[in-house]
Amino acid sequence: MKKFAASIALLMVSLTFAFGQTTTDTISMKKKSGGFEFYQGENRLTMNQLIMTIKPNEQAYSQIKSAQANYTFALVLSYAGGFMVGYPIGTAIGGGDPNWLLAGIGASLIVFSIPLSQSFNTKAKQAIDTYNRGLQTSSSLERSELKFSISENGIGLVLRF
Fold it and tell me: Which end of the chain is more exposed for a tag (fewer CB within 10 A), N or C?
């Protein structure tokens, strides 16, 4: 009988850790100075890791791919605009004849990239919310506990639910 009780207790303990999704599986966005960072629990996710994490949820995956397209386009425009503004400024500092038309076009590219970046933030937040809503949590798991306990009656496992 002791072997049977021990095997049941071992089975219950191993099943407690077998559930894959916990509250740390949710993804969150945290604002930083240059934009947002993505976290799953305490782990920081890069954009590629975020996409691979969200991939099983088809709706969230399509939303994050759309957000990534906006992010990439905004990044290209802002870098090109920054170069187009910086080159004439560097020429002026160096004593040459700067092309201010080029700087104006670069500034307009930078201004155009701002709404694209904001669109990325909105779409990424929607994708993360969709993903987090899709996570299945079990309310009975959150309320039940299995602990090893010592009491006046002896040593044993205590299951509270």
Answer: N
Query: Tokens 């201010």 correspond to what residue?
Result: 100
Confidence (pLDDT) at 23: 47
Residue 109 CB: number of other CB atoms within 10 A? 19
Helix, strand, or coil (residue 72): helix
Confidence of residue 152 (pLDDT cuts 50, 70, 90): confident
pLDDT, average across residues 32-61: 87
Q: Which two tokens stand for residue 83?
A: 């170069």
What is the distance between the alpha carbons of residues 71 and 116, in angstroms, rounded to a whole number? 7
CA atoms within 13 A on the CB side of 56: 5
- CA pair distance 127, 59, nearest whole angstrom: 8
* Cα separation, 142 vs 140, whole angstroms: 5
Residue 106 near residue 82 (C-beta atoms within 8 A): yes
Integer Cα distance of 43 and 52 in angstroms: 14
Token readout for 136 is: 């299945």
Contact 64, 107 (CB under 8 A): no
